[in-house]
UniProtKB/TrEMBL annotation:
This is Uncharacterized protein. InterPro entries: WASH_strumpellin. The chain crosses the membrane at residues 12-33. The keyword Membrane applies. Keywords: Membrane, Transmembrane, Transmembrane helix. Signal peptide: none annotated. The lineage of its organism: Eukaryota, Sar, Rhizaria, Retaria, Foraminifera. Pfam families: Strumpellin. Belongs to the strumpellin family. It comes from Reticulomyxa filosa.
Amino acid sequence: MLQDLLKLLRFFFMHIYIYIYLYSFLKYMSIYFKKKDEKKKKDRWNQYKKECHTRMIELSEYFSGVKPLTRVEPNKKLQEWFGSLAEQIASLDVNGNSNVEGRKILKLVNALEDVQKFHQIDSSLQIKQFLSDTKSYLQKMVRTVNVRDEVLGTVTIVSDFSYAWEIINNYVGLMQKYIKKDPQIVLWLRATFLKMVSILDQPLVRIHQCNSEDLVSVSAYYSERLVAFVSGVLDIVPKTMFDKLAQIAVLRQTRLPNLELKFERKYLKDKALLEERHEFAETTHGISVFTEGILNMKTTLFGVIEVEPQQLLEDGIRKELVFRIANALNNTLKYPIQK
């Protein structure tokens, strides 16, 4: 009986210890990311705020009637109103109460919608575009200010991808299959690659806590592994591009002969080869779509390594080109063995 009780207590305290450890780990991770996320939040807020404030100032100057090239009838009330709106936007504070700031912004949005009904504004496409852009930035400010610390902490925990360091390799073939089918999938994969950055956090937690000098070197090592994985997934793009180029070469040699400089008009329909030329154009367009898919990924930071999509595509093309040339030479340059 006593032994069973001791086992039960040991089991209970072991789980308590695991719970405390996990809680402390998640707490540390949330604090670690909180500083980065707060800075990004403030930067975005200030950027949107600056755009809105600048547009209101320009509209206020526009209705003054003295700005060069405006050619608009002066309207002192609108000038003062837009100036007042600019002051209200400038007074918004990202560190204030999110509910209060959100209500202020919504009032500004409603005011901009109401002012569009004025004839002097409704008749000007330029002013309407300015107001539309300002409303868009104000709505982004609302979304930004409502991103609270609790939400950031939850997102950080949910997006933890450290468990998938090995299992993610099983999905490389599936990723490449989807990319080959639809090049725009590359844009979706960017979110997956960014999520994989959380893999770097687990091996760096203790190193960061003890302020070790090896933090940079270890970060660089795991960042290089992550970049190598991303490059391996995206290797399908240059491979598919060269396959399509091979299709174009075969099409040009076999089904699209060179046209004579002059021929009779009655042979125009036969010489057009519309189906073949449509296939040629479609294949060529497919190559451009593949390259566009990677180039639209934008510059991405994987750990401590910044990856340029253009450089990634160029390296992949060089690698595939070397492989194809070496393979062609290996299959072509064969000499009989003299006995």
